[in-house]
Amino acid sequence: MNVKFKMPKFGRHLTGRGWLKELGLTFIATTISIVLTFGTAHYLEWRQKVANGRLMAMMVIHDMDNTIETLTKLAGEQAAMTVMAQYMKDNQDRLDSVYKDSLENVLNHIVAADNSLLTYRLDESTEKVFLSSQDSWKNIDNATFIDEVQRFYVNRHELYDHINSSSRWRKPVSEDEYNACLLSDQIFEASSLLRKFLSMPSVNSYLSLADQRQRELNLAALRFKQISDRCKFTMGITDEELTAYIESRERTGRNVKVYELIGSWILMQNAEYDYVIEFAADHSYTQTSITHQHESSFNGNIDMKFISVGTWELRDDSLLMVLQPGMKLEIDDSRITPKPGKEQEVKDFIAYLETYGKAIRKENDQQKERPRSYAASIDRTGNKMELMWTEPDADGDEIKQAYYLTRPKD
Predict the structure, then answer these.
(1) φ and ψ of 209, to 5 deg
(2) Interatomic CA distance for residues 270 and 301, integer angstroms
(3) Diameter of the chain measured on Cα atoms
(4) Which residues pair with 298 in a beta bridge?
(5) Is the per-residue pLDDT at 15 higher than 80?
(6) Is-contact 332 305, C-beta < 8 A?
(7) CB-count burial class (<10 Å; 0-12, 13-18, 19+) for 231
(8) What is the per-residue DSSP string for 192-212?
(9) If you write DSSP's letter for every residue of 53-72 in order, what string do you get?
(10) Rounded to an integer, what distance in angstroms lies between the CA atom of residue 313 and that of residue 19?
């Protein structure tokens, strides 16, 4: 809507009332203009302040939820390791048949990593940002939220101070004791070390207190969950809004467009290995891995090149890549020079590479199509791309992995 203000007409004779009328219209027009100008600026400033406050609030709540997740996971580890350690204690004659990873996990559970008292370290990065920012409390105009955040950080420090100083939490075998056992008794097998440590009264006492440690962690996680829920409620922050915030933090670029994807991308390039992916406009791609083989029998490198093909498709922020079975093998020995008297060794080495390559080709020929989906994002220059995915770790927890690709330099 266009708003037109009547302005006074100069250069003509005005009566007393006419002059006052024109002056009044001028005053009104000026006043409205000032109100609109400064009122709009104030409103925009207020909107930005509210937005900044909500971002800060979500950052703190995310810190709370991460702490809750850490404590819950640590409580579960306490229970699992104690059950495993008790089994090994009751079956010491069978330790040689137990998986090495399980033995080392129990050792890590009872042996201090170093002689520092800070066995459990606290990530204070978000706390420091919140407390040091002059705008934090000014932008978050919610006294209840501020009080709950302060209570959370105070309680979290008290908890970590407790578990780092309490005898109930102190791991029973120090680093010095562990090293002394290795040096004096010449015990290097994990099974033998466990037999020795599981017979120590301090280790048995530590294991017997696992239920108390687990209860402390679960109670702390519950208390922090209540604070987190109250903070979300008082600020009107939904789970969906918080999820979107977390995803935006994890994504450092923007969605990739089709025309930006097409072309060559380097996944890895060094003296030992090259890995290049070429995305074509017809939605096919070629991935080429090159290993640079070195041997004492020749100067230079033999390039062993594996070439595979597949198809690709972009769906919003997702890149779907389907690798086809089979691959092509190329061995380039044109840039090597055999050392004197080593000609036959070089031929034998090339024959070995061909046999090895054929075995890999046969294995790939027997595989089915391998689809993989990545969260794809690109930086502002268009020369760096991130492909992120999740996969379970050894404990079954989902962890994020990422490839980082760059455009070849001209």
Answers:
(1) -95, 10
(2) 13
(3) 119
(4) 338
(5) no
(6) yes
(7) buried
(8) HHHHHHTTSHHHHHHHHTHHH
(9) HHHHHHHHHHHHHHHHHHHH
(10) 73
Contact in structure between 303 and 317 (CB atoms under 8 Å): no
Neighbours of 162 (CB within 10 A): 14
Among 116, 139, 127, CA closest to 59:
127
- Look up the pTM and report it: 0.56
Place of tokens 């008292």: 117
**What is the C-alpha to C-alpha distance for residues 368 and 364, in angstroms, rounded to an integer?**
8
Is the pLDDT at 142 greater than 80? The verdict is yes
**Which pair of tokens denotes residue 90?**
């009751």
pLDDT single digits (tens) 69-115: 999 988 888 888 888 888 888 888 888 777 778 888 888 888 887 65
Taking each helix axis from N to C end, the angle separating 16-90 and 210-235, rounded to the nearest 10 degrees, works out to 170
367 three-state secondary structure: coil
What is the pLDDT of the chain when averaged over all its residues? Answer: 81
CA angle 362, 332, 287 (to 5 degrees): 55
**Residue 272 to residues 117, 291, 305, 352, Cα–Cα distance (Å):** 42, 6, 12, 18
pLDDT single digits (tens) 324-373: 888 888 999 998 899 999 899 989 988 888 888 888 888 877 777 778 88
391 phi/psi in degrees, rounded to 5: -155, 155
Element (H, E) at 147: helix 143-165
Question: Cβ-count burial of 249 within 10 angstroms (0-12 exposed, 13-18 middle, 19+ buried)?
Answer: exposed
The CA-to-CA distance between both ends of the chain, in Å, stands at: 53
